[in-house]
Amino acid sequence: MTAATLAVSAIPAVPPSSPAPATTTASPLLAMPIGRSIARLAVPTMAVMIAQAAVSIAETAIIGRLGTEALAGFALVFPVMMLMQMMAAGGIGGGIASAVARALGAGGRDRAAALVPHALAISASFAVLYTVVIFLAGPTIFRALGGHGAALAHAEAYAHVLFLGAIAPWIMFALSSILRGTGNAALPGAAMLAASLSQIPLSFVLVLGIGDWQGLGIVGAAFSSIATNSAAALFMLRKVWTGSLPFRPGLGTIGWRFDLFAAILKVGLVASLSAVMANMTTILVTSLVGGFGVAALAAYGVGARLEFLQVPLVFGIGSALTTLVGVAVGAGDFARARKVAWSGAAAAAIMTGAIGTFGALLPDVWLGLFSADPAVHAAGRIYLHHVAPFYVVFGLAMALNFAAQGAGRMMGPFLGGLLRMAVATIGGWLAVRGGYGLDGLFTLVGIGMLCFGLVIAGGMWLVPWKARAAGKR
């Protein structure tokens, strides 16, 4: 991380910009060197996200010990689970962090304090929505993805427990976003790191058992996730209400205000829609892959996990960009906001490019962590050879997406996600119908990823952020 930050801090140019206006804010985030400020906020979050990625890998390996059908069932739930996490942390969570950061950048501590209960109310509402949807439509969703038989039974059992406790991750990510919006990444990082490190052994015991106890099977992983997320949420909730913020939040003296809900949702809803499109892309591609059999479905679940592994990794850098860009935009310093965005995006591209190189050159090393089935390896190699080379562009685009949340400028990420979904799903469907098999399908998935990056980066370069009319920033 340090090397990447140093490498990008010397970027020679950014898009043309007007001089930054004078500002009266005293936020230290505006005076700190850009490379140092990104590292200061990114490292704690990146540490916990790496730990959560390890949890994801470990849980897949643990569930894989239950057999191919259980692994396929887990793959059916995985896109929906990732959608919820991406919306909670990077969608609505991004809207929360952006609103708090922009309020503090403009010197509005009272406004930042009033945003806290509104953020928690929004997150709790989405948690209830997810629970209801899964219980009403979960089986239909999993069947549409190609699930049947034992794989479908595993998917339903796991999903019912996991989403019954959806309130735990939603509140955890909301509190983390509030803290990150103030520039405090260390506290949520410590809480979530402890939760992640506890989840691996707890999942192992609950899934596979210990001694004479046979364990709970796949639902044990769901119980483990709920328990550790709840612990982290309760810890952060106590800290937020006992002085860990630069302002004092409250529930009884504020009242509900439309403008505060809007400040979060105008960024959070668009960011969530982008997350929906990203996961709909995965879901629709999963449906297409399901037509090639259980082994291909399991292979795509394992291969796509390397793709999704980058989301929490880039989130470390991206969460820093949301806060730093938000504070700069709140203070009216758009030149700094743009430079922060490009610096962080270059660091993310270096990191995801390295992951893509590994996946493309050594696919069996990754696939071997989860399965010894030759059919799974054969299909997984096709995916990684065709998609992993585009991870570098994917990382660049994801980081700029987080930066756009801080600026409240979400049109580029939305259009990029829409084009990616169209190329990967419609193009992939045409490739399958045309007889090009998994090679054709995964080629279009990679091209869609390239389009995603080009639209976001190209749009921001050609139309750089600048101040809007008063009251519309």
Domains counted in the coordinates: how many?
A: 1
How many β-strand runs?
A: 0
Q: What is the first-to-last residue Cα distance?
A: 32 Å
Helix proportion: over 70%
User: Strand percentage, roughly?
Assistant: under 5%
Main sheet attributes: strand count, strand direction, barrel closure: none
**What sort of overall outline do the alpha carbons produce when their principal axes are compared?**
globular
From the alpha-carbon coordinates, what is the Rg to the nearest angstrom?
Answer: 21 Å
- What ranges have pLDDT less than 50 throughout 5 or more consecutive residues? 1-25, 469-473
What letter string, H or E per element, gives the SSE order?
A: HHHHHHHHHHHHHHHH
Structural class: mainly alpha
The number of helical segments is: 16
Overall pLDDT level: 84
What's this entry about, in short?
With 473 residues, this protein is mainly alpha-helical.
Keywords:
473 residues; mainly alpha; 16 helices; globular; disordered N terminus; disordered C terminus
Question: What does it look like?
Answer:
The chain is 79% helix and 0% strand. The model is unreliable at 1-25 and 469-473 (pLDDT under 50). It contains 16 helices and no strands. The longest helix has 38 residues, at 68-105.
